[in-house]
Structures are given as structure tokens and as C-alpha cells.
Amino acid sequence: MRIPFALALLLTTAPVAAQTQSPAPAPDGPSRAFTGSDLFGLSIAADPQISPDGRTIVYVRRTGDVMTDRMQSSLWLIDVATGRQSPFATQGSSPRWSPDGTRIAYAAADGDRGQLFVRWIATGASARVTSLPGDPSALAWSPDGTRLAYTATVAGEGTKLGSAPPKPEGAKWAEPLEVIDRVTYRADGPGYIKPGYDHVFVVAADGGAARQLTFGRFDDGGPLSWTPDGASLLFAAIRGPKAEREVMNSDVIAVDVATGTLRTLTSRDGPDASPRISPDGAHVAWLGFDDTRRSYENTQLYIGDRNATSPRSLTASLDRSIEDAVWAADSRSLYASYDDHGQRRVVRIGVDGRVTTLADNVWGGGLDRPYTGGDFSVSRGGTIAYTGGDASAPADVWVTTGGKPRRLTNLNAVLTGAKALAPTRKLSVTAPDGRAIDAWIATPPGRAPGQRVPLILEIHGGPNSAYGPGFATDMQLYAAHGYAVLWTNPRGSTSYGAEFANLIDKNYPSADYDDLMAAVDAAIADGTADPDNLFVTGGSGGGVLTAWIVGKNNRFKAAATQKPVINWISEALTMDATLFTSRYWFSKLPWEDPMSYWARSPLSLVGNVKTPTLVVVGSDDYRTPVSESEQYYAALQIAGVPTALVKVPGAGHGSIAARPSQSAAKASAILAWFDRYRKAAPATAAQ
């Protein structure tokens, strides 16, 4: 079946490849090469929720649907003892067990809106328990199982300035004016923000009218945590008269379920979020840090008494950023996850701060690139369900008890068993200043020992994020096309401690460029990369560095910068999080010190660029807006550099690869661009 090429590709006159390639003959049987069509056959596990007794797991299975060109989510049950699976719901998300394990609440579409449903396990009967104007999220059962708390958007009225004249009956007039007066008025993904705010609700678990608990011109967020007596709920929000001008200064807040009275439990300058009340009700745990206006801070795990007073960090000496944490049933420790050297772990952290690793192969999240990620949950007895895996396949469901991990699903066995996938291994890299840099390399299936092949350097975004040794469709597609693929965690990456991440604080790009070049040199020295056939690409922060690299050297045959920032001044004034860039990545505002912004903008280096450079962006990107890519495309055109602009229709910054056809077509466009400049015959490594 033909995959629709849903990209607008504007090609300019450019040199063709040095060789002419004849069309490949039609295969006599199925191909073992990994292709764009295979993206529709992949499944990935997410959000595994283990029952209180540890016997059953419900999880979200996301699978490509070739007819709708989307990843569809369904819910499945797994018997932990046998691994036997059974379908639970043909569509749905956010499954959560009732405290007694007899029911599962979940969100699912009903018409054009999401609603909450409850399934009774014993009978298999389901009931819709909400009738909402907005999609529910952050589901949380009350301790006695009689109520569900959640957050949902409450629509509001937009600001009005003046009015149009009276409209005659039956007249067809233009849409009314839109008046924008919020500091943050658009967001990547949702787009321009409609009037309204997210608030906390509670509803009876067997249905009925929902009751709104929080109000005001503030967004209240989950996760939600009930006190053991069911009298209060904890959540996080940025509230107060200056809330709109804050970026990360959220607080933990308690709301009385009976009266709606609010109490703010934390008050420092910095984010306090994800509150969790201990089962005995004696302590509150939450995640946060002191905001010092650096580009990166480790998120620490704090505990305080039941009112969050006398707080102390359990992870100050860990030097890693906590992603999630839940209390153990005995209230004497918490289960938490964090990234370490490009790999997510689940650990147990005692209230004394002692850390014990329980699983170190946690994986999950996306499919196109190997970002760290993964979800977990814990039964009352301490059995952990989590998403895990490696470079051989997308994430599956695993369990571990007593440090013994066991894989429960193998969702892609049929597909991956029929495909020749790229082998992946770690590559030793030393930066010019002597720092060790983690890197991984995937090579084309069937590559002969000692054969040098073209190399694609793939750079992660963030820049404060991390890649790891996991499955990624972009890497597989590139490798299947005959390229080795190199990905690294240069300085600025997370999972190596705060000092390493902040080596680029107020100085990005900088020496991270040197780390990337050292990784390329290592791939050449290792005998894998053909030094005359080097290519580079990356998205977001990786797009910044791609554009920076071609402005610094001419060693790459071609480049593809994806959703980049090209001009830090224009990005700071047009991105969705309006206050962020100038507050955390620079010391002064753009009009106070424009040259510091210009000195770190790839646009300043356009005069040096000789490398043919493709520019790729989602047409609805509000994080690194389309205007950034269009500026670079225009500048390269003016400078006479071979270039083309690829726009992914309907895609935002975070959703540029969300639809399988667009993900496959984007990779194909990049490969087609690289193939134009790829040399015909690879060299052979010295034996």
C-alpha cells in the first residue's frame, strides 16, 4: 500500500549525486529491509498500571493504523503469573485501578470529547461517569473507592475591545476580531490558547454530576493526591497576582473537598510539583528545585510533614534528576525513576536517602528517536511494572520483584523477526578536554567487517535532554539505506549530573560542538565511518547544532537542520513560552544585550556555510516557530548555498513525527537530500 507523502518539499537547483543509480529490481519476495511502511506495523507499550495485589497489569498499547495514519491507543490486561494478555478496551488511555482492585477507571473518546469511564473487572461492564466539556486528565481514586478526582479545562470568555456594527439577519460576515492579552498566548500542540483554565473536579465513581473544586484565572495541574481520610486533595499550580508572569514557580496546594478551601503548602522560588501523600498520612513528597535562573537544575525529591513543612531533599547527593516518585505501602520509602548515563532506572529511595536500584532497562516514550523515557507503577507488595527494552524493538511491559526483571510482552516479535535491523553498540569518545562522552553507533545490516560506510551524525534536542541505547525508527531507516548512524550525549545533556548539563549554561552552542566533532572522529578512527562521506542532522537543539556545525566547518557533504532556532532574538519573542529564553538561557533581555544573542545564533555564521543544507519544520511549530526555519532557508538562498525547505503539514514541534506517514516521509526526504551528495564508492578500513 502506498504511503502518502504528506510533506511540502520545495527543492532548489542543486548538484546531483556523483553517480547515477539504476532502479532496483522488484523483489521476488518480502524484503528484510526496514522501510517506511513498517512504521505502521509497530506497537509500543506505555503507562503500565499494576493492580494493588500485583496479579494483573493494565497498560496502553499504541499501534500504527494505516487507514487513519495515526498511532491508536488501546488498553490491554496482562496476567502477571503467566504473561497471558487479553483486550480491555479498543481505545482509551490513563487506566487507573481502584484501591480494592475491583475496577479500572480510564479516559476514552466519546464523540469529539474525552470522558471518564469505569470498568467493573468481575462483570466486564463499563459505565461512563462524566459528561464533560473538556478532556479529563490526572485521574485519581479516593482512598475508599467512591470518588474520582481529575483535572479538566473550563472554558472562559475572551477579552473584547469594542464591537462590530449590528449584523443584518442572514448576512455572511467575517469572523469577529481576536483579542490577545495573555503573556503566553499559544502553545506547541494545542496552538493558540482558547479562553479558559484547567481546574480540579471530583465525581462519584458510579457516575453523577461532577463538582468543580478550584476556580480562577490559573491552571491547576496533576498528578492529584488524596489524603488517606479522603478529605483533601493535593495538586500543583502557579497561582497569585503575578501568576501569568511566572515560568516555573509552582506550589503544592491542598484543596478541601467539602468546602473548596485552598491552602498553599510550599512557597519557595522554584517549581514544587507532583505531590504524593504517604499511605499513613504523616508525610508529603514532591518534586522540585530552587530556581537560580540556570538553564538546568536537577529535580530533587523532597519530603515534609503532612503540611509539607520542615522539607528536606532525599536526593541532594544523588546528582540526578528525578522523573517520578510514588510512596511504598509501608510509608518508609519511595519508588522513583531517573536517568543515568542515557538509561532510565527505577530505584527505591528510603526516607534516610539511601538508594537501591531495582530496574535499569526502563525505556519508552517515542519511536522516531532514542530519547530516554519510560513509565512504572508499583503494587502494594512491591512488584514493579514498567516499560523497558533495548535497541532491538520498541518498549514492552516488564515486571520485577526482588531485583529479578521479567519481560511480559513482545509486541513486535513478528515484525522484527522478519526484518534485518541495524546492530547498535556503544562507541568510546573522549572530548578535547578529556571528558568521556557517551555515544552509540548503528551500522547497516549486512555491513562487511572493516567496510567503511557513509555516516550520519544525529544530534538530540533540548539541549538539556539525553539519548540512550534504545530502538528508534529514524536510526533504523537511515541504517537500512546504507548509512551508519551516530548519536551522542555531548555536554549539556542530562543524566550525567548538574555540572555536566550546565557546562553550556548561558553558553550554547559552545564546547558541545567539540564533543560532537570528537564523536565523529571516533567513528572514523573505529573504522566504521567513511571520512569523505559524512552527513549531519538533528532536531530542535540538534537543529541548532546542525546549523552551527555547517557554519563552523565544511567537513560534511550535506546537512539537514530540523526545527532549529536560527536567531535567538526572534525565537525569544515568538516562541510559545514567551518568558523562557530570555530568563534562563541569557543573562539579559534581547534589547539590553542584542549582540550576546547574535553571537550564539547560527544565522550569524551563514556567510561561512558551503554545505548543502536541508531545512525541515512542522507547519504548526510554536516552540521553534516556522519563521526560524524560513529565515535560515531565505539566508541560504541569498548566500547561494544549495538548500530546500520541507514543511510537515499540521505538525507541531513535539508532533513532527506523530503521524507514521509523515515520520517515514520526513526520513525519506532527508535521505534523498543526503543521497544527492553521497559518494559512490566507500573506502575500506585498513586491516
Short synopsis of the structure:
By secondary structure, this protein is mainly beta. It contains 10 helices and 39 strands. Helix 2 (473-480) packs parallel to helix 10 (660-677).
Care to describe what's here?
- This protein has 687 residues and is mainly beta.
- The chain has a domain at 422-677: Alpha/Beta hydrolase fold, catalytic domain (Rossmann fold, 3-Layer(aba) Sandwich), CATH 3.40.50.
- Helix content is 14%, strand content 34%.
- The chain has ten helices and 39 strands.
- A nine-stranded mixed β-sheet has the order 1-39-38-37-36-34-35-33-32, with helices on both faces. Strands 2-3-4-5 form a four-stranded antiparallel β-sheet, with no helix packed on it. Strands 6-7-8-9 form a four-stranded antiparallel β-sheet, with no helix packed on it.
- Strand 29 and strand 30 form a beta hairpin.
- Helix 2 runs parallel beside helix 10 (660-677).
- The two termini are 44 Å apart.
- Mean pLDDT is 93; it is low at 1-25.
Tally of contiguous helical segments = 10
Q: Largest sheet, if any?
A: 9 strands, mixed
Strand arrangement, major sheet: 1-39-38-37-36-34-35-33-32
Query: Percentage of helical residues?
Result: 10-25%
Q: Over the alpha carbons, how many angstroms does the gyration radius reach?
A: 26 Å
N- to C-terminal distance? 44 Å
CATH class of the domain at 422-677: Alpha Beta
CATH topology of the domain at 422-677, which one? Answer: Rossmann fold
Shape: globular
Superfamily (CATH H level) name of the domain at 422-677: Alpha/Beta hydrolase fold, catalytic domain
Corresponding CATH architecture of the domain at 422-677? 3-Layer(aba) Sandwich
Number of strands: 39
